[in-house]
Fold this sequence. Notes:
By secondary structure, the chain is an alpha+beta fold. It has 2 domains: 2-137 and 263-352, no CATH class; 148-227, no CATH class. The protein has 11 helices and 6 strands. Helix 2 (45-54) runs antiparallel to helix 5 (95-136), helix 3 runs parallel beside helix 9 and helix 10 (298-325) packs antiparallel against helix 11. The longest helix is centred in the first third of the chain and has 42 residues, at 95-136. The chain is elongated.
Amino acid sequence: MKRLDRYVALQVLSSIAVVLVVVLGLDFVFAYMDEVQNADDVYTNSVILQHLLLKVPGSFYEFLPLSSLVGCLIGLGMLASHSELTVMRAAGISTSRIILSVIKPALILAFLSMLAGEFLVPVTEQMAQLKKAQATSGGKAVHSQSGVWHRENNTFIHINTVNQNGNLQGITRFEFDDKGELKQSSFAKTGRYQSDHWQLADISYTDFLGDRTQTSQLKDERWELGLSPQLLSALVVEPKDLALSRLWSFSNYLSAQSLQADSYFFAFWSKLFQPLTVIALVLIGILFIFGPLRSVTVGQRIIAGVITGLLFKFIQDILGQMSSVAGVSPLVAVLVPILICLLFGVVLIKRAKV
């Protein structure tokens, strides 16, 4: 039975690998065609290639569920086309045993992807952004397209740029009273983090005193802000590219400040349940082979797999948007498509009489 497990696992994993290579290759080509339009004397082809290569782990993590579904359909479909599954079942091996032989490597692959999403993808994605930012901003800024807006208590903060060392440039603060009236605005040229606080330099103040204003200057100032450089980096990076630990801490920080955190909670639950997502889609792929797609061609199976995977992604993305605008729980938005797939799998199992 171990030999059978290895044989089935090898067929399925090799098919998943081929699908991943094809999908990642197409994604790389399309991304290159998009980026090369912005090439110049600094943002050269070599920089673009380095930037895109650093984004490959993130693409691998993103496309793994869909690739697992299609790869499973192809791998088991080839076994079915060569009558190998029929021979296995004629030899007394149950369908449930064959399903288990596929689930085992898929489960390992799912948890490996989760480890990659936790430890590898956040690093490579930030390196990719840094590589591009350095080329497009003269090596100075990590984020400078439109700056970063943030609110803490009654203070609204805009930061022009965050450089590669986590230091700030161009910090504008607007402080309001409890009635929502502007009390003070300030602009600091730079900010450096000092173990437990930020040290601002070259600050200009404008105080709003009824019908007049008053300006003042300070050479430096201690600034107590709840955002550490680690949490601040979460503001300039896409939620899906953050590690679980940072997502959780930043989501709770935003909630404590009464700020919108649903997109970060949604990204957290999506990454946490990534293994379950892979297993659910692989289960659908397996049961298509033993159920409604057992007599169709490989091409038709691939089309069915792509449609199913895209439909799954579409539903999850729609629910993710609803979690931000309609008050749907991010946890519910993540789990509903997974549970639908699992329920669909149970129905197919019963129909296939496993």
